[in-house]
Amino acid sequence: MNDFIFEYNEPFYVEVDNENTGERVDKYLADMLSSFSRSQLQKLIKDGRVQCAKNNNEAFKPVKANYNLARGDIISLVIPEPEELNVEPEDIPLDILYEDDDLIVVNKPKGMVVHPAVGHSTGTLVNAIMYHCQGNLSGINGEIRPGIVHRIDKDTTGSLIICKNDEAHRNIAEPVSYTHLRAHETLSDL
Question: Which of 47, 153, 155, 166 is catalytic?
Fold first, then answer.
């Protein structure tokens, strides 16, 4: 699914269709809003920023992450304005699988957060990469995600590609996005 346009601190509404009936609200929102991780959305749910109503006449009520959607449910989501984080380089050991002048491939261990966020501003892969690369990172994804081409969850281990310059980032991100889109379309056809 595509990301939707929303304004910070303003309710964003979406109506559940037949295809998503029975799906958990956190999974549904994570699939719909690819710029947010499932854990970020679960925090919004926990904070009461995700609510559901059975129809337009019913009041919205907070839901839990495991709430199963019903046909016709209307979801209200309020995304707060992001807090500014000061991301500092940290000398954290990295499992480097490959490195050259344009990119670095690292094996992210299970339990390590990739991007700094409220509650996880230190000890992240980004903090470690910033120290290792000493400022030589792509700026395409901003200060919070410098050089990061794709993401994996905190509790997942796997290889991540980090770009050291914007040209490498553009050249790698486009095929990765295309491959992800084709895989999603193929799996949706099953």
Answer: 153
DSSP one-letter string for the chain: -------TTSEEEEE--GGGTT-BHHHHHHHH-TTS-HHHHHHHHHTT-EEEESSTTSPPEE--TTPBP-TT-EEEEEPPPPPP-----------EEEE-SSEEEEEEPTT--SS-BTTB-SSSHHHHHHHHHTT-S--TTTTTSTTB-S---TT--EEEEEESSHHHHHHHHHHHHHHHHHHHHHHHH-
To the question of pTM greater than 0.85 for the whole model, the response is no
Here the tokens at position 135 are 């400022």
- Which of 17, 19, 38, 18 is closest to 29 using CA atoms? 38
**Residues ≥6 apart with Cβ < 8 Å to 182:** none
pLDDT at 188: 52
Q: How confident is the model at residue 1 (pLDDT cuts 50, 70, 90)?
A: very low
pLDDT tens for each residue of 101-117: 999 999 999 989 888 77
Using CA atoms, how far residue 63 sits from 20, 27, 41, 72, in Å, is 16, 13, 12, 15
Query: How far from each other are the two terminal CA atoms of the chain, in whole angstroms?
Result: 16
pLDDT value of residue 117:
75
| pLDDT of residue 52 exceeding 70 | yes
153 classed as catalytic: yes
